[in-house]
Amino acid sequence: MKVNQNLQDAIQIFNQLSIPRSEVVMGRIFLKPGSNYRELFSQEEIAKFGKLNISEQQLSNLVNAFTFVLMYVVAERKLTQVEQTLLDNNLSPDHLEIFKNAWLQYGNDYSIKIREKPIAVRDVLHSFNWNISLQIEESRLPMKNVANFSNVEGKIDQAEDLYSFDARNPAVNFIFETKPSGEGKTDKFQIKFQKSQILDLFEQLEGLQESLDKLI
User: Fold this and answer.
1) Residue 40's closest CA among 60, 16, 15?
2) Angstrom distance (rounded) from CA 73 to CA 111
3) For 58-113, how does the pLDDT look when each residue is reduced to its tens digit (9 = 90+)?
4) Comparing 145 with 170, which gets the higher pLDDT?
5) Region 184-196: what's the mean pLDDT?
6) DSSP string, 145-203
């Protein structure tokens, strides 16, 4: 399991919590897979964390980080390895014991819930759209792939003459909208595929489908 700064920060915050409070936090994370901190704790409880100098951002990171850890355990079935990784990254033995006890108590139910309904730790795909664009200026192909529309004779010295325009090379724009789990602003991002990339994508999807068919 790869350890990033978010998980290291979450471990430090978890270590700061008293044993009883740590048990409550870990129990909530186990009982409601994929929930954000506002869904796990009341405003009164969040305020109490603030009095312990734990900000809402830190609390959110704590929940997200340990949710990731649990999802990794479910997917890879490497509980012992994960426990050692947490220890190596300075999780206290007492707090590791809380994690282990919570897994023994809730781990089976948590695994079933995760497999029945996969979750996203941070951003969730909100919507998806696509369109085909025939923008000729962006559909330039090397001369070796298309007819010589430029009518260049002899040696080609200018790089501009190495390309011609061909509307047969469309571009597809995939538009994704994501938003953080729970509340948050929706963000958009776009990925553009040229013809060769589209063909490669569908070939990979066909290979994936064949592999899935063999498993059924």
Assistant:
1) 60
2) 9
3) 999 999 999 889 888 888 788 899 999 998 999 999 999 999 999 999 988 888 88
4) 170
5) 72
6) GS--TT---S---SGGGGEEE-TTS-EEEEEEEEEESSS---EEEEEEEEHHHHHHHHH
6, amino acid identity = N
Helix (H, G, I), strand (E, B) or coil at 37: helix
Distance, in Å, from the CA atom of 167 to the CA atom of 136, rounded to the nearest integer, reads 5
What are the CA-CA distances from residue 110 to residues 11, 75, 105, 141, 204 (Å)? 21, 12, 10, 52, 32
- Look at residues 17, 121, 20 and name the one whose alpha carbon lies nearest to residue 74: 121
Please write the tens of the pLDDT for every residue from 9-31. Answer: 999 999 999 999 999 999 999 98
* H or E element in which residue 130 lies: strand 123-133
